[in-house]
Specification:
By secondary structure, the chain is an alpha+beta fold. The protein has helices at about 1-15, 20-30, 40, 55-85, 105-120, 135, 170-180, 220-235, 280-285, 300-310, 320-325, and strands spanning about 125, 130, 155, 160-165, 185-190, 205-215, 240-245, 250-260, 265-275, 295-300. The protein has 2 domains: about 1-85; about 105-325, 2-Layer Sandwich (BirA Bifunctional Protein, domain 2), CATH 3.30.930. Helix content is about 40%, strand content about 25%.
């Protein structure tokens, strides 16, 4: 029995010494320390040991058990430490070229739009993305029963009067509330609508809203501003046309189309809406509609970027695929 225990110890420790990974260590544990392992199998042999030898054999059995378990724990700790440290790093080896970073195509488009309108005298205004119904609807002459206020078309908070803004026109209202006319601003930012995601729709997108308030502002001023933007941004061949439409916050109202190159051919593309600011909007912010007139327009920034850079699916702009973003 003592010879068997000595052999078990020496063989077990030798095999444990050669273990080099966690899988092999687990196999060793099962073979020697498991419920059906060699150490457990040696214990029933004690019944065949004579009464005089039992104390010595029992002591040796405990020594072998402690030696195997202690060495197993040390080996396990050593392998775990090596796994955390990982392979050695050769600091003299040249690094991999990760390439230069660049701004997202939407951020670049926003910067370009701001730069164009700045040359026309527009300053940039910002406002909160979480809005109240007053700034998002009431002050913009959108009545309580208007379909645009339905929950199916907006992201309302638990407090019914708060929501994620559905348009950057809210910034125009906030600016007019605290600024006396004349003023000439563009508002740029994210807006939210629960649209089903497809190639041309997304539940979060960006808008640029323009507002110009002064004496004797007319539709001619509006079309001239949009025409100058189109030619400055899309090139000398770009044109603007406006088609009659309806919006609660402008009167008269129109849709904005811009003629731009799509796959090498000039096409008319709808980019947003525009019109003369409705007198009710002026009254809501304390402006005298008998003294002041103004125009407003709203353009979709994703639409502008997609047309300028030939992007056919709006979802690509938000997937953060570096292979796609490196193209711009």
């Amino acid at each position: 029995m003592l010879e068997h225990l000595n052999q078990l110890e020496s063989t077990g420790l030798a095999e444990l010494q050669s273990v080099s990974d966690a899988d092999a260590l687990e196999q060793w544990r099962i073979a020697y320390l498991g419920t059906k392992g060699k150490l457990k199998a040696a214990m029933p042999m004690m019944k065949d040991v004579s009464k005089e030898d039992k104390p010595a054999v029992g002591k040796r059995l405990n020594e072998v058990k402690n030696a195997l378990e202690s060495t197993f724990k040390d080996k396990k700790a050593s392998l775990e430490a090596a796994a955390v440290e990982g392979p050695a790093i050769d600091v003299t080896e040249p690094g991999l070229d990760c390439g230069g970073g660049r701004r997202h195509v939407i951020s670049r488009t926003i910067d370009e739009i701001i730069e164009v309108f700045a040359r026309m005298g527009f300053t940039v205004a910002y406002g909160p993305e979480v809005e109240d119904e007053w700034h998002n609807f009431n002050a913009l002459n959108i009545p309580e029963d208007h379909p645009a206020r339905e929950p199916i078309d907006n992201f309302y908070m638990e407090q019914r009067h708060l929501m994620l803004r559905s348009q950057t026109s809210t910034v125009q209202i906030r600016t007019m509330e605290k600024t006396k006319p004349p003023l000439k601003i563009i508002a740029i930012g994210r807006v939210y609508r629960p649209d089903t995601h497809d190639a041309t729709h997304y539940s979060m997108f960006h808008q640029v809203e323009g507002l110009y308030v002064d004496h004797d502002v007319t539709m001619v001023d509006l079309k001239t501003s949009l025409f100058q933007f189109a030619q400055a941004y899309f090139g000398p061949g770009a044109e603007v046309r406006i088609r009659p439409s309806f919006f609660p916050f402008t009167e008269p109202s129109a849709e904005v189309d811009m003629k731009m190159k799509v796959k090498g051919q000039w096409q008319w593309i709808e980019l947003g809406g525009c019109g003369m600011v409705d007198p009710n909007v002026f009254e809501a912010v304390g402006y005298d509609p008998e003294e002041w007139t103004g125009f407003a327009f709203g353009l979709g920034i994703e639409r502008i970027a997609m047309r300028k850079y030939g992007i056919s699916d709006i979802r690509w702009l938000f997937e953060n695929d570096a292979r796609f973003l490196r193209q711009f």
